[in-house]
Design goal:
- By secondary structure, this protein is of the alpha/beta class.
- About 25% of the residues lie in helices and about 25% in strands.
- The protein is built from nine helices and 15 strands.
- The strands form four sheets. It has a six-stranded mixed beta sheet, with helices on both faces. Strands 12-11-13-14 form a four-stranded antiparallel beta sheet.
- The chain is globular.
- It starts with a helix and ends with a helix.
- The model has no long low-confidence stretch (mean pLDDT about 95).
Length: about 325
């Protein structure tokens, strides 16, 4: 029903075609690309659209919202991102759920020549993290308090906002940056697109950090998978992933459940976790892993997005747990 500005600008959707199941899309337009004093966009999750296309059932030509600056269609045109309407998106979703996520293409002309001209890519073998990560170190709230190094694998702006709102200094570094010689109080591993097995450089740096320090580490989404890989666990591809605002998870060891926002196509194989690691959360729909924790060190993660945006904020306490551990 809502969230297309956030989803389209979420770097985790890089290289993907978004299919929205809610039939009416575009009725509240698009907010402006206004930036805060710290340089972060106020209403988006990054500075541009990362999804390669969007598929909707019924596009709303007229929009109405106090904060809208343009229509969804005009925004897509300006960013050179194709969109198509008039598609039975619920039937398409059934196909994707039955057969799993697959390569897709929007074809405007069925001529053989045009189809052959389309670039052929293998999504799983591309390091999408390298394409969306920052290229240099960026600092926020310098000198504000505890210093957190944030590994940018395709970080959503609201993750940075949630950290800054808790009074810490954030040092944002590229995905393969060697931060092990830096002075900091905690390490935060961000979300990102694609297969974590393409990010071996990040895993090696993380493993080096874990071998020489017991400083707190927290990860979200891709961060969960990278920490699991650094610990020695393996990753597998989900049939069609978890991509919605209503994914139920249970905190292991309790009957406490949370409704979460998720966007990932890969998962940690919990059976391969070393003996000093445990699952922290599990998915109530398919029992897949939703977070891990170390038994003695302050290292823990969530596969879901506690910062949501868009989505529920039931699990934003994960940031408080991390701040408390610094």
């Amino acid at each position: 029903m809502m969230g297309y500005p956030e989803s389209l600008t979420d770097p985790s959707y890089a290289g993907q075609i978004l299919v929205l199941t809610y039939p009416l899309v575009g009725n509240y337009g698009v907010p402006p690309f206004t930036k805060a004093d710290n340089g972060l966009p106020l209403f988006m999750e990054s500075n541009r659209i990362h999804a390669t296309a969007i598929v909707v059932s019924d596009y709303c030509e007229e929009y109405s919202h106090w904060n809208a600056s343009e229509s969804l269609a005009d925004w897509l045109k300006r960013e050179h991102v194709p969109g198509i309407t008039g598609i039975d998106t619920r039937q398409l979703t059934k196909v994707l759920r039955e057969h799993g996520v697959m390569m897709g293409r929007i074809v405007f002309d069925d001529s053989t020549a045009d189809q052959q001209a389309v670039e052929q890519i293998d999504y799983g073998n591309i390091n999408w993290v390298a394409r969306v990560s920052c290229s240099e170190v960026i600092r926020y709230n310098e000198g504000a308090g505890r210093r957190v190094v944030l590994v940018d694998c395709g970080v959503k702006a609201n993750i940075i906002r949630c950290l800054l709102n808790r009074g810490v200094e954030v040092v944002r570094v590229p995905w393969n940056y060697d931060y092990t010689t830096m002075e900091f109080d905690g390490l935060f591993l961000a979300n990102g697109p694609g297969d974590p097995d393409t990010c071996e450089e990040a895993v090696q740096v993380l493993r080096k950090q874990m071998s020489q320090s017991r400083k707190p580490i927290c990860g979200i989404c891709m961060g969960n998978q990278l920490l699991a890989k650094a610990a020695g666990a393996t990753i597998y591809k989900l049939k069609y992933g978890h991509r919605s605002h209503n994914q139920p998870v249970r905190e292991v060891g309790t009957n406490r459940c949370y409704v979460t926002s998720q966007n990932h196509g890969y998962a940690v194989d919990a059976a391969t976790l070393p003996s000093d690691w445990r699952e922290l959360f599990v998915n109530m729909n398919d029992n897949s892993n939703e977070g891990i924790r170390h038994l003695t060190h302050p290292w823990f993660t969530s596969q879901f997005h506690p910062e949501a945006c868009s989505g529920p904020v039931d699990t934003e306490f994960m940031f408080d747990r991390f701040i408390d551990s610094l």
